[in-house]
Amino acid sequence: MATLPLVIEPQQLAERLNDPALLIIDLSSAENYANGHIPGAIHVDPKQLQRGKGPVPNKLPTVEQLNTLFSAIGLTPERQVIVYDDQKGPWAGRMIWTLAIAGHDRASLLNGQLPAWLAAGLPTETCTNNPVPSQFSATLNEQLVVDIPWLLDHLDDPQVKIWDARSAEEYRGEKVVNAKAGGHIPGAKLLEWTDLLEPGPIPRLRDRDSLHARLADAGLDDARTLVTHCQTHRRSGLTWLAGRWLGLTDIRCYDGSWFEWGNTPDLPIER
Questions:
Q1: Which residues belong to the active site?
Q2: Based on the number of CB atoms within 10 Å of its own CB, is 17 exposed (0-12), middle (13-18) or buried (19 or more)?
Q3: Tens-place pLDDT, residues 100-125
Q4: Which residues pair with 254 in a beta bridge?
Q5: Helices 90-101 and 235-245 sit at what angle, rounded to 10 degrees?
Q6: Could you name the CATH architecture of 142-261?
């Protein structure tokens, strides 16, 4: 099948629902998956998108962990992945970022998640779908992720912008979540991830013109390299995806996010 766009509408998926090349991934809670999901969708615990161990458990999984996960869900190079979650899109965005890092770019976000599917009057099912395992081998694209040394080397680079996707209270240091220090990385610009979504009960991404305007208002539109992060690189999964959808050719993620930066002594912080 032809590669689908990065962001697709429910009807686009519905028209291809019986295509065996589709791999539909539901990143919702196990309870929500059991209550109803898109026909054919398999359930994946989103915690598997994090390393889960070490001093910064929210970092990208190891190559071995990625190979285990993607083999277990039956990923092969020709499969078109469709992803949605029950968190308004952050986990879905992180999954697509993780797939891209592992060398698989045939992945799409279901715009509006399951609420948009239901609003379109499309069917769901409650059975458990079990994937046929494959043998997946990841080739990491390290251009999609940055670490503390990279950030420190580029703090004064005017062509590098840092996109902080947290809340304004976290950005200003008024609210501190699982960190010794509050505030933000020096020079980082605030654009909260929820500002990318249309208002209302269906968490659809705003149209491209609106998203471009929001990036411009935040001072993020003229970067050669854009780095996005949040607290644990969940919310910034959606901001990375939105940047890719807008055609940004060099948008990366700081997967350690504020959990790492705010707990690492002697790093510079602005408030």
A1: 230
A2: middle
A3: 999 999 999 999 999 999 999 999 99
A4: 146
A5: 70
A6: 3-Layer(aba) Sandwich (3.40)
